[in-house]
Structures are given as structure tokens and as C-alpha cells.
Prior knowledge:
single chain, 453 residues, 9-stranded antiparallel sheet, 23 strands, globular, binds flavin mononucleotide
Amino acid sequence: xxxxxxxxxxxxxxxxxxxxxxxxxxxxxxxxxxxxxxxxxxxxxxxxxxxxxxxxxxxxxxxxxxxxxxxxxxxxxxxxxxxxxxxxxxxxxxxxxxxxxxxxxxxxxxxxxxxxxxxxxxxxxxxxxxxxxxxxxxxxxxxxxxxxxxxxxxxxxxxxxxxxxxxxxxxxxxxxxxxxxxxxxxxxxxxxxxxxxxxxxxxxxxxxxxxxxxxxxxxxxxxxxxxxxxxxxxxxxxxxxxxxxxxxxxxxxxxxxxxxxxxxxxxxxxxxxxxxxxxxxxxxxxxxxxxxxxxxxxxxxxxxxxxxxxxxxxxxxxxxxxxxxxxxxxxxxxxxxxxxxxxxxxxxxxxxxxxxxxxxxxxxxxxxxxxxxxxxxxxxxxxxxxxxxxxxxxxxxxxxxxxxxxxxxxxxxxxxxxxxxxxxxxxxxxxxxxxxxxxxxxxxxxxxxxxxx
Length: 453
Ligand code: FMN
């Protein structure tokens, strides 16, 4: 598997799915529009991004859509699409700790400057009502101010001026660390890493306990420790193979307007007073490549979905060992709708699986449980199970007022109802003719071309 963006781009090039755009492309909307149209079919490399503030002699290209669908993530992980969540779950259960290499062995330390100028980077404006340029593939690395344990997560980052970013911290780990530092009146040091390989990006999306170093998952998936390097101005280590790293600190007790920003649920996240990052240093490779993720594309939703599935599977299997697989559906934005497949052995297990899933992460809103004869990746099959195996008064339950996702516009600023649907055959009916799925012998194996030419 590829351990850097460059390695992965070479794989895409060999497969003929990395397309180069040689003409000038405007960073404002045009680049995102091309990236969105190509996403899932091609990864795109833009040689000549142009923008109002970008220097005319800019040499930094932009890439997007490096994993534009499930199949590309599966290829990046070296497994089939159906094996991804199980493989990720295994990696999360058996992490390999990263190692720190000297700066001389870190390509990202080729150019180091303390005069950070974000306007020198080809940062796009993606959607119509976005407040401006946004870094969307920035992996934020930070450390627990007390324990020193590392945390890794992606955050949208608004370019506010040449060395300040606005950041959205949803109530998860990075926010917890920032609040801890702020309580003592301190900034939280961060490193923002742009231009990483798909596995490093995936690992940042894991559902893990506070204090768990997500880069350990990347190591397990690589089959060797991830290489990190020490920061110049922050006590944070970050991937030695990143293309660009922005070092800085989230300032305590300062909030400035951030947003609106077009988000993965295909709505705008509103403008609000949010945390501010002051940048202190920029490190890059010799000829850096800038990466952007066009929000709300399959690249964005799948990135979160694939990794989350691994963590959710682990949690659900702890509660219900008969759980076989989980899937966050694309229609549910890869976050809100979960399907769980179980080989039910005891009455009530489906509901226990739903409880575990709902507790695993805030975003999960509607959970459907199906039996093993249902293809959880096929929305028609799942819908069939709900249609024929579920009675709403018996099998649907609703929990009001739980912590949901603030980016879901139907919530009350994140306060959300949760719904569970048990679409499994009742235990007492299992194996009876009533729920025996029809089948034509020979249908599965015959080749139509042998009959119809
Ligand atoms: N989470 C946020 O809190 N704020 C964001 O702006 C944000 N933007 C994201 C953008 C992309 C492209 C992706 C894939 C995810 C984004 N996320 C965002 C989700 C977090 O990165 C993810 O939930 C992560 O696992 C949180 O980690 P943590 O709990 O360790 O902080």
C-alpha cells in the first residue's frame, strides 16, 4: 500500500485514472466544479491553478479526487470493498505505533519558513456561498496538554488572512484538547498536514477513545510504523511524507466569524464565532503538491464512512458478537444512516446492536438491522427487508433529544432524535416457511450469455 501521496498518485497514474489538466483553472469555483464532475471516475491534477491572490508564478499544482469512490479506497487499502470495514477494525484493534525520524529523513522539511503566507498556496473557494478560501484536506495533529497523547482529525479551515485560519471544532476530541488548554489560559499547538496518502487520511477518521493515536491505525494498515518528524515551532510530530505542513496554535479565548461553508450533508454550515489558529511556520517538500477535497463529493463522505464503519463494527461486535458487518449508506451522507447485518441467535439482539451503534458516535441517526441473507450494500435489498420484516409498532423505536450532528439542519443545533429499525425476522419465525426467501435453483450460477446472444 502507498505510504505517501506521491506513491498513491503514481498508482493512479499507472491505472490511467489520474488526469492532468494543463489549462489555467480558476481556484474560485471552477476547480471544485471540475473535481466534483470527475470524482469517482478520475483523480485530477491541476497544473495551472489561478486565483486573485495567488502569485502569477505559482508552481504548486492541486490534486483532488484521489479516492473518489469506495473501490478506490479499497484499492488503497489493498482489500475488496466488502472487506474494508473488517480490515480497518482489525488495524484499529492492533495498531502499530509511529516512529520519529530525523528532519534529514523527512521530505516535508525540504523548505522551512516562519513567514507563513497562505495566499501563496493554491487554496480553492469551493461552493457558491462559502465565506472564502478553505483548506479541506488538512489533517490536524495535536497533543493532550496533560498526557501528551496524540490526536489526529480533519477540520475545515477558513483562510482569514495570510497567517490565520478559522476552524470548526465539533464536540469531539480536538475540541476537548483545546478546551483543556484554554482552561489553563494556554494555546493548543497544532500541525496541519496537507497532501497525505489515503490510509493516513482514513486513519484520521477513526472512531476511537480519547488518547488513542490514530496514526497507529495507519501503521497497522501500512504493515510498518508511520514515519513522523518533530515540529519546528510546535511540540507536535507529524507525517514526514506530508506535502505541506502548517504549524500553529489554536488561540485561547479568541473567537472570530467562520463560515458559511458548503458541507457534506449538501447544505451550508452557518457562519458563527469560532476558534482561530495562528500559524507560526510552514514546511514543505521541494516541489509540493496541494491537495483539496471537494466537500460533499463521494471522496468526502466515503473518507469518513469507511473509517467509521471499522470503529462502529468493533463497538457493535463487543455488544452483540453475532454482528457480521456494518455499512454507512451514501444516501445517509456516509454518516447518518447505518445498516447492521447480524446472524441473530437470541431474541432482542437486533435492538442491542442498535443501542451500541447509537452510542458509538454522534452522527448516527437512523439504524436498520438486517439478517445475513440481506445485502447491506444494496439499498433495494435493505428497503425490502424493512418492507417485509418490520412492523413499525413493534420494531421501530425513537429516542428523543440525543447528541447528534450540528451540520444536520434538521437538528436543534445538534440536539437530535435517533431511530432504530429492527428489520430482522423474529426469532420464533426463523427457519419457518413464512420468511423463506424465494429462489430459483441455478439462478445464481447461470450465465445468461449461454442462452441469449
Ligand atoms: N470535524 C470537525 O469537527 N470539524 C470539521 O470541520 C470537520 N471537517 C471534516 C472534513 C473532512 C473532509 C472530513 C473527512 C472530516 C471532517 N471532520 C470534521 C470530521 C472529523 O475529522 C472526524 O470526525 C474525526 O474522526 C474527529 O476526530 P477526533 O474525535 O479525534 O477529534
